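Summary: Need help interpreting a holo structure output

Steps to reproduce:
1. Submit the protein chain below together with the SMILES for LLZGTKA7.
2. Request a joint structure prediction with the ligand placed.
3. Inspect the structure token block that comes back.

Expected: a single structure record containing both the chain and the bound molecule.
Actual: see attached output.

Input attached:
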Amino acid sequence: MSNPVFVALDTPDLRAAEALARSIAPHVGGLKLGLEFFAANGPAGVRFLGEVGLPIFLDLKLHDIPNTVGKAVAALAPLAPAILTVHAAGGRAMLEAARAAAPPACKVVAVTVLTSLDAADLAQAGVHGTPAAQVDRLADLTRAAGCDGIVCSGEEVGQVSARWPGGTFVVPGLRPAGSDVGDQKRVLTPADALQRGASVLVIGRPITGAPDPAEAARAIAASLKASAALPAGV
Ligand SMILES: O=c1ccn([C@@H]2O[C@H](COP(=O)(O)O)[C@@H](O)[C@H]2O)c(=O)[nH]1
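--- attached output ---
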């Protein structure tokens, strides 16, 4: 993957998503479509944006019993996503069912600890310890289930990528220095995350909410090159 940035098109508006996608396409490596977009536009919307010509990351964060998740993944397979998310907390059998039902070319990655959560949030949910410890536990479970990688924050990607050679490490919660973090709690800059071992950089509002999204995407790509984190020519 040359340009690791997948832009999160978090909008229910199909035409707005298309316009954004086309304007930033030269500066990103793929499009991430999540719950907001999928709830409004469904599989037809995914096919429509597929015509932009960039890899599609379906971020649906599936989390249910193994039978249900397996069948949902099978139903999504004709959309040929490059990446698909499930929740690692769904357990080993659910992760195995997702991997078995996905096309071989689709990377199935499991969300460990959402980047909008910190240690206090985890404690409220009965998980005591640091986000980093929980990410490690769920990464081990995901790997044992045969999935391709995980979603974690930039704070954990260094430790977890060192433990899992060949894994795919998807990192959201990315903010260029000085930008608004919004609802994210575990954040890092895109260049720092890449240098720590991220494979895929998920960036939404810093691009889509910018006055000039194409310029914001271009500047982020330039920051990756400047930090020597991205191969020349990208
Ligand atoms: O732990 C996670 C998992 C997924 N996301 C998704 O990434 C983007 C982030 O958007 P920003 O606007 O850059 O904050 C969004 O689509 C989330 O659903 C995440 O943030 N954290």
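--- end attachment ---

Reviewer comment: The chain has one domain: 5-226. The chain has a mean pLDDT of 96.
Status: needs-info
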